């Protein structure tokens, strides 16, 4: 496979909303230690935060989230009522990266690391894996699609598809990354080792009422806890085999969908940094073995 001839390792970044500040802490420590993957795949927050790993912008994720977490232009119920998106497309994905806290598109584009995001096709319920090579407006739209929460966001229309949160169909895309031929794979989770996803019957009834026109997507949502927990079991086996190296929170972390507490964002980020620093020598040994 031409794509995998010169590979070192890949990194898979789970979503989880503002728990993604954990991932930001992890990748910042990796960057500080000049540890860069050859290929990265991000889901939801793993996409919109993880892209800063390719643009090599240490500290950017924490900085802009703390600065604007109380700004209702970024996220609010009012946004949702007026536009259909809790997180504003115009402010969060245009004004913020291009004017207020500049996303380094040039470094992103020049970095040979592959960066792929996962979305879910609303009509088929299937995951869509899309490489974002340039860090331009179109790529940012793909990242936004990956992070567009069902009901809290409008579908994002790209390449003839209606797309929403990639975490619905493939929350931890380790199988996809393994299919690319990498022998060393780092997986960054945003849940602690004891976590298992549970069914939420009341939420499922609500989602069924709202999304009944999209049966395949709705089935993904209804079975999401099953597939997620199966993936965790598969990861445990892969870790024993040495195919993956997992970095996950050392203790449970919590964040609201609209997190206004700067101190909590800082706490989540610092947990990611601390866990990565503690794991650093083990990771290096894994990558060098």
Automatic annotation (TrEMBL):
<protein>
    <submittedName>
        <fullName>NTE family protein RssA</fullName>
    </submittedName>
</protein>
<dbReference type="GO" id="GO:0016787">
    <property type="term" value="F:hydrolase activity"/>
</dbReference>
<feature type="short sequence motif" description="DGA/G">
    <location>
        <begin position="165"/>
        <end position="167"/>
    </location>
</feature>
<dbReference type="GO" id="GO:0016042">
    <property type="term" value="P:lipid catabolic process"/>
</dbReference>
<feature type="short sequence motif" description="GXSXG">
    <location>
        <begin position="42"/>
        <end position="46"/>
    </location>
</feature>
<dbReference type="Pfam" id="PF19890">
    <property type="entry name" value="DUF6363"/>
</dbReference>
<keyword id="KW-0443">Lipid metabolism</keyword>
<keyword id="KW-0442">Lipid degradation</keyword>
<dbReference type="InterPro" id="IPR037483">
    <property type="entry name" value="YjjU-like"/>
</dbReference>
<dbReference type="InterPro" id="IPR016035">
    <property type="entry name" value="Acyl_Trfase/lysoPLipase"/>
</dbReference>
<dbReference type="Pfam" id="PF01734">
    <property type="entry name" value="Patatin"/>
</dbReference>
<keyword id="KW-0378">Hydrolase</keyword>
<feature type="short sequence motif" description="GXGXXG">
    <location>
        <begin position="15"/>
        <end position="20"/>
    </location>
</feature>
<dbReference type="InterPro" id="IPR050301">
    <property type="entry name" value="NTE"/>
</dbReference>
<dbReference type="InterPro" id="IPR045943">
    <property type="entry name" value="DUF6363"/>
</dbReference>
<feature type="active site" description="Nucleophile">
    <location>
        <position position="44"/>
    </location>
</feature>
<feature type="active site" description="Proton acceptor">
    <location>
        <position position="165"/>
    </location>
</feature>
<feature type="domain" description="PNPLA">
    <location>
        <begin position="11"/>
        <end position="178"/>
    </location>
</feature>
<dbReference type="InterPro" id="IPR002641">
    <property type="entry name" value="PNPLA_dom"/>
</dbReference>
